[in-house]
Amino acid sequence: MTFKLDKGRRITDFFQGIELTWRYVCYEMEKKGNRNDPQVVEKRYFELRFKKKYRDIVLNSYLPFVSKSAEMIESETRVLKIHTLANSHYSCKFKWESIKLEHPSTFETLALDTELKNMIMEDLNRFLRRKEFYKRVGRPWKRGYLLYGPPGTGKSSLDAAMANYLKFDIYDLQLENIKTDSELRKLLLDIENKSILVIEDIDCTVNLPDRPRVSASGHKRSGKERQAFRVLASNYLGIEGEHWLFGDIKELLETTKVTPAQVAEELMKNEDSDIALEGFFSFLKHRKTEESELENEASKKIENKEHKEPNIEHKCLKEESIPCKSNI
Fold first, then answer.
1. Tell me: the pLDDT tens digits for 43-55?
2. 10-15 and 18-31 beta bridge pairing
């Protein structure tokens, strides 16, 4: 269904008992340029009229409501697309080409554990409503999921269900097609907002000729990072002052390998500060247990090696001490 507004058309709206009048303004004007070939352009906009005493309500409540409603309508009527890589006709470089996404998968039809399905949907809803939160704490508005399993286990169906639920396009990226970092960067920059980037077989080996080799190094804990936890708890959870879990968390931070990025990711998992800190505390205990198990396993290997070495040396000495028979 398509609607058309005539020039000067007025529409009256009501919000919290306030009467507001919209007027569609449309007129033509001559564009400055070549005098011998003047160009006429059409200007179109909406004019909103209301009483001055309602200014704060209109600016702080009504206009955000109109903007959000427009986004919802646009999202509901949006035609979803799936974008794949294709060779350019004019060069050997890749570019995105799209077709209509017609995958029927939804969370209602997805064969997935109900509890896990609800957890994913709640995580997606929390991500959508926290766009301003991401901006406030200085993080890019994005969310990542790692899906693993053999072919046919439903990874692509889950991708499509997420796209249909969020009303986001899908960009399907095959890493083996990318040869350079600059080419990958160009493709990523061409991705539109409110999209899902699916990277297939991310665990495969990708050798980019111009990618420098960087040696990995262990993460070192420092007092500054432990102090940074207070700042992160304040920024992400709004906690000012003390919390009953701070002491236990700081003790684990003293002996557990964890980066500030990992801390921030854990604190973002729930909007309730108590639940978020309890989850982070459990995360630290789990990491501590894993590190202890790895250290014990490494110690056992060293002990076994030390026990074996003296036996070998003793055997050699014994062999050397055997007297040789002489024919003299």
1. 888 999 999 999 9
2. antiparallel
